[in-house]
Amino acid sequence: xxxxxxxxxxxxxxxxxxxxxxxxxxxxxxxxxxxxxxxxxxxxxxxxxxxxxxxxxxxxxxxxxxxxxxxxxxxxxxxxxxxxxxxxxxxxxxxxxxxxxxxxxxxxxxxxxxxxxxxxxxxxxxxxxxxxxxxxxxxxxxxxxxxxxxxxxxxxxxxxxxxxxxxxxxxxxxxxxxxxxxxxxxxxxxxxxxxxxxxxxxxxxxxxxxxxxxxxxxxxxxxxxxxxxxxxxxxxxxxxxxxxxxxxxxxxxxxxxxxxxxxxxxxxxxxxxxxxxxxxxxxxxxxxxxxxxxxxxxxxxxxxxxxxxxxxxxxxxxxxxxxxxxxxxxxxxx
Length: 334
Ligand SMILES: [Zn+2]
What we know:
The chain is of the alpha/beta class. It folds into 2 domains: 218 residues, Ribonuclease Z/Hydroxyacylglutathione hydrolase-like (Metallo-beta-lactamase, Chain A), CATH 3.60.15.10; 68 residues, Winged helix-like DNA-binding domain superfamily/Winged helix DNA-binding domain (Arc Repressor Mutant, subunit A, Orthogonal Bundle), CATH 1.10.10. The protein is 42% helix and 22% strand. The protein contains 11 helices and 15 strands. The strands form 3 sheets. It has a 7-stranded mixed beta sheet. The protein has a 5-stranded mixed beta sheet with strand order 8-9-10-11-12, with no helix packed on it. β11, α8 and β12 form a beta-alpha-beta unit. The chain is globular. The mean pLDDT is 93. The site of zinc ion has 5 residues, from loops.
């Protein structure tokens, strides 16, 4: 089914699998005299094949309706595998020229670099896996887990981009000038694409209608995320947000404000819980328990990223400090 989410903008949604492990992901096709594709989705052979098929159907529909269909470029939002893994296939099968920033390319220039970019610092690793046994087990599992994810996402690493773009710049799309905005926070290399004439923002993972954005070390940064959200909220004429996951956001200013409020409230909540513990502080696991009382391991695993990113923010802003007692790590207010 061809899904034209806005006149002249088509969405192709690639199927996910296994719930949160592999979420469905959106790719946007903007045909025209000099059109563009935003993001490349998964890289599995089936995913690429289905994309090419739908791309062909859109082309066919445009031809039938006498609309131009000249699309020769694909722009990457950020170097996460559900966005870049399809690049190699799109280039090979459709001849799309790849466009990305230097920072994005540096993170995916090789498998080694990519894997290294996921290493969190030792402290965060120890907090997530407090016992030595757990840590040894996770160390053993690290390689197979990496390989499993790379297989699941069809991760393949793109060749050097055909077009390197600046993080804040304008690019021509169908004879108009669209804006590329650097919007770090979820990922440090994240960019968004803005069509100022129609007020349409391709926001990647930063803004979603029904979910909050995943945050976690080592690449997320809460202060940067809030700044980016404000920058996007304040775009003149913002009218519609098209996200990498989920349906379009038709009340973008309200939704972005809501996301800012959620992050502020969560930060306050974490700070209050730490303050309540006084001088002895609170350990990471106990903090997760207080935030999600009675929740199981999976819920905790899913939440620990944002909690760690929030703690990093509170430490950076000198509201909280990390204290080590032997192997134990706790947090207390300064
Ligand atoms: Zn992402």
